[in-house]
Write a structure and sequence with these properties.
The protein is 34% helix and 20% strand. With 478 residues, the chain is α+β, with helices and mostly antiparallel strands. A 7-stranded antiparallel β-sheet has the order 15-12-14-13-17-18-16, with helices on both faces. A 5-stranded antiparallel β-sheet has the order 5-6-10-8-9. Strand 8 and strand 9 form a beta hairpin.
């Protein structure tokens, strides 16, 4: 008789045992709430859109436990049990985030809001809607169109990102130039706190200054202070007309300088996007277009509202005087150009790369582009950037050639060093580490360059006041 083979699986840790207990207890106490135990099948919930791109192969590795509440009350039950058992919770919307804010481990519970998709109310007279966080941005606007209204924030991922995720990161988008970021369109929130209590902050009214502005505190907090289960958002009338205007320039520097002509004009576009030379070349290569033949830099503009012809004429005159070759595009060409802005670029398959999300005062945009050549020479990288030029938010792409023998899990130090130095450039110009994507888990070191120790201490104090056990999305945002 042979002896039994020794156990080769590692013993569960205390954290893993706590998660196992959570799954069993939730199923027993609330059988109507769907929960998935940690298995390799839940592995996709370990990442968001940013971290999934660079994740090492992990076949066979357990993902987190995942819960799918279908109401605010169910979110409360889930969070209460997690607090009782000391299990950390990672709130997750559509998983489209670009900063690692929704990453999770096998020792955590992901609370997915993907079933909280109701449009609870649309009030045309108050110009507000009350919605649940799992609703997709584009779906909200489809529901609003029959009322002649729209929700203005429009991140590039509008057709796949959720309202809750947009709120968690204070998402921006193309129309920020005129309508502002998510914060400007959120009036009130219902939030489940770390102890499972449900609180309401903000006001249904447009005005309201009673107490501290906790609504703005939760917007952009990346799930570390609470889980949004309902939002009252501000709506706008659908513009009576929209028009796309392009201005091509002979160089990146000339185009960046030409942006000031828009600010100095009487016209206030809904969207102002700037493309440098390598970005135009990237789009042409990836999408089969011929933008580069029209110029070496492009300012792409959307006008909306009344007097669209007068707006177009005034803007065309201003940009022509600044050296641009201006075209008021047809409606069909305008649609194609905006689609190229959203999805026309390709990511390099044969290079290392890092994408950034810096922002500067919009008058300093030319200086950021002017800094690229020196950084390229210093670190041996290539840098390009498309910008939400109306509010100074750049999305630089830093690339470096792969070499034979490179470890796929170890990007060269020069890549990260170049990215960090570009962040320092933005900060030196009065800018910020992130304009709209958030800090998440992958920009912590950069946040430390921007926030003073005293301010970081204050932020941790707020976190501790609302989540004393540090159970909500630990290790993110701050």
């Amino acid at each position: 008789m042979t002896s039994a083979e020794p156990e080769t699986r590692p013993r569960p840790t205390h954290t893993q045992r706590a998660v196992d207990s959570f799954v069993l207890e939730l199923s027993a106490r609330h059988p109507g709430i769907e929960v998935l135990a940690p298995t390799p099948e839940t592995g996709s919930y370990r990442y968001d859109a940013a971290t999934a791109k660079t994740a090492a192969p992990d076949a066979g590795t357990d993902g987190p436990a995942v819960v799918f509440p279908a109401s605010a009350g169910e979110v409360q039950q889930v969070v209460r049990l997690a607090a009782e058992l000391g299990v950390s919770v990672v709130p997750r919307g559509a998983g489209t985030g670009l900063s690692g804010g929704a990453t999770a481990t096998a020792g955590q519970v992901v609370v997915s809001t993907e079933r909280l998709t109701a449009v609870i109310e649309v009030s045309p007279l108050d110009e507000v809607a009350v919605v649940e966080p799992g609703l997709i941005n584009a779906e909200l606007n489809a529901r609003l169109a029959p009322h002649g209204l729209f929700y203005a924030p429009d991140p590039a991922s509008f057709d796949i990102s959720s309202i809750g995720g947009n709120i968690a990161t204070n998402a921006g988008g193309l129309r920020c130039a005129k309508y502002g970021v998510t914060r400007e369109s959120v009036l009130a929130l219902d939030v489940v706190l770390a102890d499972g209590s449900l609180v309401s902050v903000g006001h249904r009214s447009i005005k309201g200054v009673t107490g501290l502005d906790l609504t703005s505190l939760f917007v952009g907090s990346e799930g570390i202070l609470g889980i949004v289960v309902r939002a009252t958002v501000r709506l706008r009338p659908i513009p009576v007309a929209r028009k796309t205007v392009t201005a091509f320039f002979d160089s990146t520097a000339a185009g960046a300088k030409g942006l000031s002509a828009i600010t100095l004009s009487p016209v206030r576009p809904a969207a102002i996007e700037f493309f440098d030379t390598p970005t135009l070349e990237n789009i042409d290569s990836y999408s089969g277009t011929g933008l580069r033949a029209r110029g070496a830099a492009l300012i792409l503009i959307e006008l909306d509202g009344y007097g669209i012809e007068a707006q177009s004429a005034d803007l065309a005159a201003a940009l022509t005087a600044a050296g641009g070759r201006v075209t008021v595009e047809s409606d069909d060409d305008g649609v194609r150009l905006w689609e190229l802005r959203r999805s026309g670029r390709g990511l390099p398959k044969d290079k290392w790369y890092i994408g950034e999300d810096i922002a500067v005062p919009k008058s300093r945009l030319p200086e950021v582009y002017a800094a690229f050549p020196a950084l390229e020479a210093r670190f041996g990288v290539d840098i390009s950037a498309v910008s939400h030029a109306g509010d100074g938010n750049l999305h630089p792409l830093i690339t470096l050639d792969r070499q034979p023998g490179d470890d796929p899990a170890q990007p060269p130090a020069a890549l990260q060093e170049a990215a960090t130095e570009l962040v320092r450039v933005a900060l030196s110009l009065g800018g910020t580490v992130t304009g709209e994507h958030g800090i998440g888990s992958i920009k912590q070191d950069w946040a430390a360059l921007e926030l003073s120790p005293r301010i970081r201490q204050a932020q941790h104090a707020i976190k501790s006041a609302l989540d004393p056990q540090a159970l909500l999305n630990p290790g993110k945002a701050i």
